[in-house]
Specification:
Blueprint (H helix, E strand, L loop, with lengths): L5 E7 L3 E9 L3 E5 L13 H4 L4 E5 L21 H14 L5 E6 L1 H12 L4 E7 L4 H7 L2 H6 L1 H5 L6 H8 L1 H12 L8 H11 L2 H28 L7 E6 L3 H5 L2 H4 L7 E6 L5 H4 L1 H11 L1
Parallel strand pairs: 3-4, 3-5, 5-6, 6-7, 7-8
Antiparallel strand pairs: 1-2, 2-4
Helix pairs in contact: 2-3, 7-10
């Protein structure tokens, strides 16, 4: 799915090994995937982006073919702060102390945390189809809770969600993809098979639950601390969201993100949640114009 790219593994502090694909030449661009996917979600965009950038597509800690350590009592080893530190270490190992950054879904949460914690590293930032963790938990509307049901299901104590998901991972993934997309044909069977290969591993199911448990605890607390302190992302930041997504229907991203971003710009695209796969050409055009 990534012609001309090379695969490698990079060890980062804490004994974590990150799997990634790299390709292209030019300014470094880090692309971070979301839940319940892997780096493969960028397969429609990465080859074109590699014509202008050195593209780095990793699997986040706990996802895909990266390491999946057991969760800790406070879930901090799956915090977006820890995941962001992984990515800073990966890029440094590749020789990139500064880079462009784009993230989708959970990868976008890692991305905005990275921009807050390591502002010197991020030259430009693109966030795809999210609002902040603080905003998502504090909106508390019935419509948002119904749409983001998994936010409340996955944070239940182990092994409850792990056991239910593990009973039929394919059914769970099929439901998620069908529920969050406006274009089911956006996911060819080989791509779905790759997502299922990675996700059906019990260690991955546990790790991805831990990712959400961290979201409801340490990540939320970090957001609240930064908001109280008035810390904001100052680099140029682009927001993209789907017209048919939860963010597009229920949130006001350009207004909401002013809590954490000094000068957000952005637009809705004619798709659902999975913009790089549903509307790849429109997403590519918006990213190229911004980056």
């Amino acid at each position: 799915m990534f012609p001309g790219f090379s695969s490698q593994r990079i060890a980062v502090p804490g004994g974590i090994e990150i799997f990634l694909e790299t390709g292209g030449a030019g300014p470094p661009l880090l692309l971070l995937h979301g839940y319940p996917e892997t780096h493969a979600m960028w397969h429609k965009l990465a080859p074109a982006l590699a014509e202008k950038f050195t593209v780095v597509c990793p699997d986040l800690r706990g996802y895909g073919d990266s390491a999946k350590p057991p969760g800790e009592a406070d879930h901090a080893n799956y915090s977006k702060r820890a995941m962001a530190a992984d990515m800073v270490a990966v890029m440094a190992a590749l020789g990139h102390r500064q880079f462009l950054l784009a993230g989708h879904d959970r990868g976008a949460r890692v991305s905005y945390r990275l921009a807050l914690d390591h502002p010197q590293a991020v030259q430009k930032l693109a966030l795809l189809d999210i609002v902040s963790t603080k905003a998502a938990y504090e909106m508390n509307s019935m419509a948002l809770a119904a749409a983001y049901f998994h936010w409340y299901f996955l944070i239940q104590p182990a092994p409850f969600p792990e056991t239910l998901i593990g009973a039929d991972p394919k059914f769970y993934l099929d439901t998620i993809f069908r529920k969050w997309t406006s274009s089911p044909q956006a996911f060819p069977e080989p791509v779905l098979a790759e997502y299922l290969r990675a996700f059906r591993d019990p260690a991955c199911i546990h790790a991805t639950c831990e990712c959400y448990r961290a979201g409801a605890t340490v990540d939320l607390e970090n957001d609240r601390r930064d908001f109280a302190a008035g810390r904001k992302i100052t680099c140029p930041t682009l927001l993209l969201w789907g017209e048919g997504s939860v963010v597009g229907k229920l949130c006001k991203p350009l207004e909401t993100w002013r809590d954490f971003i000094e000068n957000p710009i952005g637009q809705a695209l004619p798709g659902g949640h999975f913009l790089p796969e549903e509307v790849p050409q429109q997403t590519l055009k918006a990213l190229l114009e911004f980056l």
